[in-house]
């Protein structure tokens, strides 16, 4: 079953208003459902995704054909492509979200005032969350599942390359949800691909409570520039690993190679290696990276470590490569490393490798990033690895939620005050 | 001592950039100071406010004279006015903030992953907070104290009516802070009153981390409309008290009179009274409010309760009076009360009076407001009454912090990951 689209006369603000009102009304109903019913609905949605495999793959084939015709790059086509294995993975992820602990109703703290008033803060859903994303059709299912599991309604606006895939995934999930008693409008997909709809979503303050952009830098930058609605954004991950003088060489080498090369395209990948001038094994450290196929761009002292290292330009220190390229600088001690990170970092994930715990604790305290690590690979920057079960993204802003964001980050709180007739003097 | 103003050639963006860079650098230094040193600095600032009483009162007298000449209203002049008692109160409030528990460095949670990584979230300052306010000079001291106590730098932009008072208060506080080792730029006052500076602050994304507007509705609305920087905003408090059929009449009357009339100009004041059609003492309830001097505007059934009640217009249900006027509706049961609040409330503070705890718990669960109360006056909506020691404001947005915001709401968190050489498979 598909959800009937609201009538649309070309006025994007009216369209978004109609969708948002329907979503808010559905969210109010959703908030009354218990945790068990929301979990059951997610399981039904996962089941429907599996049951409608052929319809979804057929829709995806149409998107793939259109994409090939439009000359999408191989990487883009790969992001767009579904097959039985990938679709099963999407359904499994939805079912896995259903198993996560429900944050809604959780008591954050409770105090009793001298006048007998009992105050508590409990987690509540944020409301209606707008998700704006690009060509990956799995986001349709992921975002819907995370939103619903935290009691929110979602308004999804996917990329036009994936329009048929998204509609098929959405229709399957809604069929499952409705069967389980969740109102269809709890998960809505914007019914047309006009770019002006995105603008209308971004300015729908009071109707949409939060926007989560999922995609490349230019999408996120546009959303941040134009939004009147609060944005949970993920920008660059210009992540540093600082190998301190007292680093264990085996750990340093394993961490550096893993942090850069395990997967180069993820936001937690290391982009700059800072080597302490007093670290004794710097030549073998850079050799290990070079031998593993990584291009190294160094400052003068780094270039002196190995003839294969090419000189870095000024821009290299501020670049998120997302490929097998790494900038390398030799620094004089912790303070120089901290200064480099403060000047060039993007406050995502930065790490130190050292056996000196005093130095490590200073690094943990003083680096102002969402995630700061000691003796670990920055590639652990991930909601799953953090035990959150999933993630809607890694927030690089400072407010509301920071770092990997899963269900808790999709809630807010309210204060409950229980009295016995108190009036204020 | 006064802080030298950055050189200014009329380019407001450059001015704000220079101020923000200085503030951010000072915040980095401030973050390295321990809690004890920040507390000592606040005590020194309080002492300096007391020591410079005559200079501050003299500056205030200049503002008062200019305000009278410009024909400011009596209410505005009263907000502007300082006297020895009020100034002592301001100094005392700064000293009291120094006594609050320091949230910085507090561990929110800690988990160990199966691979041995130890994850913790610790509270850290937000960074540089911009405060935009109107004619009350006490905000200069309050906001600076709350900002500093939570490790943040602040950039203050007060109203032009209070320019001399603000400068004198700022100069006194900075003198105290500097004496105690806090960099002067941790608390900066925008050195000119050009309104374009506000616009430059609102768009200084990446330089200012959060804006807190303190003032009337039009100021807050302008800030929300124009800001690119996240805003911690306080909008209307259209607060409801619902007197349920099973309310204790003595409690209902005491709470209603207190919620409306204790102080009518505060954001926690009740603006609409909902009386259940089955509540047996409705006539005496409205009589108590009328006898206490409150104007009542009712729907048809409320008007039938007392001839002194005048008919309400549609606009009354959406009005924050902030004076001795109250709208009153008779509603048929809890669901009708919830529907009225959902339609007309501003998600600030809503209360129920009832002896039926099942009904009360449904009200607490289903009303989507920052503060929901049972058997208590909505005038308790206040950081001090909540045991927070102070407040920078009551947030009516949904994200980051909600309800009364004090030190904790002025912090964010970072994730610390402590490993022993783990790499990601």
User: What is the CATH topology descriptor of the largest domain in chain A?
Assistant: Aldehyde Dehydrogenase, Chain A, domain 1
For the biggest β-sheet of chain A, the strand order reads: 10-9-11-8-7-12-13
Assigned CATH architecture of the largest domain in chain A: 3-Layer(aba) Sandwich
- Counting structural domains of chain A, the number is 2
- Weakly predicted, low-confidence segments of chain A: 1-6
Shape by Cα distribution of chain A: globular
Write the CATH homologous superfamily of the largest domain in chain A: Aldehyde Dehydrogenase, Chain A, domain 1
Q: What is the chain-wise order of helices and strands of chain A?
A: HHHHHEEEHEHEHEHEHEHEHEEHEHEEEE
**What value does the average pLDDT of chain A take?**
93
Indicate the CATH class of the largest domain in chain A: Alpha Beta
Query: What is Rg of chain A?
Result: 24 Å
**Proportion of residues in β-strands of chain A:** 15-25%
Termini separation of chain A comes to: 59 Å
Total number of beta strands of chain A? 16
| Largest sheet: number of strands, sense, barrel closure of chain A | 7 strands, parallel
Largest interface: A-B, 68 and 68 residues
Q: How many helical stretches of chain A?
A: 14
Structural class of chain A: alpha/beta
Any chance you could write out the topology, listing elements then pairs?
The structure is a homodimer of 425-residue chains.
Chain A: H1 12-32, H2 35-51, H3 53-69, H4 74-80, H5 84-98, E1 107-112, E2 118-125, E3 128-133, H6 138-149, E4 153-157, H7 163-179, E5 187-189, H8 196-202, E6 210-214, H9 217-226, E7 239-243, H10 249-261, E8 270-276, H11 282-291, E9 295-298, H12 300-303, E10 310-311, E11 325-331, H13 333-344, E12 349-353, H14 357-366, E13 371-376, E14 393-395, E15 403-405, E16 411-422
Helix pairs in contact in A: 1-8, 2-5, 2-7, 3-7, 5-6, 10-11
